[in-house]
Amino acid sequence: MRLDVVTIFPEYLDPLRHALLGKAIEQGILSVGVHDLRQWATDVHKSVDDTPYGGGPGMVMKPEVWGPALDAVAAGEAGVELESSLPHLEKPVEDVASSYEAGERDDRPLLIVPTPAGKPFTQADARAWSHEEHIVFACGRYEGIDQRVIDDAAQRYRVREVSIGDYVLIGGEVAVLVIAEAVVRLIPGVLGNRRSHEEDSFSDGLLEGPSYTKPRSWRGLEVPEVLFSGNHAKVDRWRRDQALLRTQAVRPELLDDAELSDADRKVLGEG
Asked: Mind listing the pLDDT tens digit for each residue in 142-201?
């Protein structure tokens, strides 16, 4: 997978070099290019924003800067390539995404624009986008990017305006880090154990239940006895029950769309 990020703060994307994403870069599963938007600014001050038409507070990012930037990235212009922050001593993994088959393939890159006005980002989006070959992120600042940039970009990209939550950030860079990590971890070969993401929260519409490790007793708190039973069916049922109960307590609305068995409904007090 190829990720390109256009931003006025390239250093903000340094976390993409670390941990599992850095390992994916080192293995050849992922490549990341970071592009400084100001290189497409044409005035002496390298300005990227101006006052909004119609008045109002704040500044709006200029189309004559963003347009050429997205044109260049779509055409394959390279930015500053990020390298893994530390060696992971792993052999390269090749063709890890070759099993993805789409119906009618649209070869345009996917352009993701983080914005509070966008569609909520979900685990389903992360799964779908983990099969993409090329994702471009446009990091807005101030009052956002001139809407004509988004409309025009649809000629060269499949555009998705996305929100990571009902709150407002200073800029899109933090949202890019969130979305990139959620997507890249689902690419085959990035996580060592496939079950790690198959049992994630939201993978089956529920929140994930609690997890435990050694020691068996800690500060007077015990690990649930069922986890030592050796009975995998019983352990799986316990984990399902815990996921159901946590979801009911924290995010009950998720249960409306979850597939529930009679045993599940009994756990929830509905049976």
From this structure: 999 999 999 999 999 999 999 999 999 999 999 999 999 999 999 999 986 555 555 555
Domains within the chain, CATH numbers bracketed: 2-194 (3.40.1280.10), 217-268 (1.10.1270.20)
125 flagged as catalytic: no
Q: Quote the DSSP letter at residue 104.
A: S
Q: Is 60 exposed, middle or buried (0-12, 13-18, 19+ CB in 10 A)?
A: buried
CA distance 230 to 70: 55
Told to judge if 185 belongs to the known catalytic residues of this protein, a careful annotator would answer yes
Tell me which of 36, 181, 200, 241 is the catalytic residue: 200
Catalytic residue from among 49, 173, 185, 264: 185
Torsion of CA 240, 188, 32, 151, to 10 degrees: -70
Contact assessment for residue 3 and residue 135, using Cβ atoms and an 8 Å cutoff: yes
Torsion of CA 178, 139, 9, 55, to 10 degrees: -130
pTM: 0.85
Verify whether residue 265 is a known catalytic residue: no
Give how far Cα 261 sits from Cα of 170, 207, 241, 255, 266, Å: 44, 17, 11, 12, 9
Binding site annotation covers 169? Answer: yes
Contact yes or no for 157/109 (Cβ under 8 A): yes
